[in-house]
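Please go through this protein, sequence plus structure tokens, and consider how the sequence yields the tokens. Keep your notes short.
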Amino acid sequence: MAGEQESILHLGVAGLGRAFSVMLPTLAQHPRVKLVAAADLRTDALARFAREFSARCYGSVEALCSDPAVQAVYVATPHQYHSEHAMLAARHGKHLLIEKPMALTVAECHSIIETARHFGVQIVVGHSHSFDGPVQRVRALIENGEFGQVCMINALNYTDYLYRPRRPEELDTASGGGAIFNQAAHQVDIVRLIAGAPVASVRAMTGAWDRERPTEGAYACVLTFTTGVFASLVYGGYGHFDSDEFEGWIGEMGQKKQGYAGVPPPAFKSRTDEIAFKNDRNYGGSQFSLPSSFPAAHQHFGTLLVSCERADLRPVPTGVMVYQRGTATLDPLPPPRIPRGAVIDELYDAAVNGKTAFHDGAWGMATLEVLLAMLQSARSGLEVRLANRPLR
């Protein structure tokens, strides 16, 4: 009915670590969601959450999921617990927002999807940068048909990923650590969205070049799609070159940044010191702080160039660059009203309006299949063929 006030989705958070810290500006500001409960092992984080949101706090995910006021759970615990905690929430009738990657095995993804179906709850897998406004705009321009079919996609990103403060499991591929599970999930989601077809084959190589941090810190990969589209993915996380130089020194979160400041990463005497440093800067820690204002540009995940039959398209933090026959034109986008707001909009439409999410369980599982194929290909030195599954 016109003028009727929209209901608000009551959200509980499982895990108040880095993923939650990054999503917090969205969760705190979005008018369609209210933070009502959280679970974490860190009492300082729970105390701050209770104080800032007048919310209930729990020492276990089981207790959080038993809270009758919680309508949906944001599963932001470490990757190796995604499956357990997502299924626990689903069994309690809670809709699911699951951080990428959805899980660590295809079997776990199947279990989450079947549990959610049995208990009648919806799944959204994110955040990934396929939600970003400029990426979505590229998809819309392609669907419009003006530039013809997609032919080739190139994605490139260089960061300091591996030398950010890490817990031990974040440096262990078997526990969901490393650049494939953490970073390739973004690029794979983006190119799958743009290509609009299932991935047919994967050929990848990975780099693990630091014995002290022995997980994948870099990769190069070629994906072919069932339509004949192909995509190259390149990622380097060793903190030398910074590809934000190509984005006018706009960082991944849409913030302006200083290029090549000459500040080396912190040196840690032990893993214990590194964990303490990380916790101190995560939510609840003494050094945690929210950005003073929302960024003026869209988030991004490095440089993306989409070659169509009649143009090349490049999403940038301020819109989409369109290149045709020697011309370059910006299709501008206004700054996002709320960063990552599209994630909550998709969750809300699924949980409250019953609309099947685009980034649903099937989508998250298909992305994980590509990530696992990348690891398999790199280890075997062979191309990996995927079953011709539906796109999502």
The CA atoms of residues 44 and 286 lie 9 Å apart. The chain has ten helices and 15 strands.
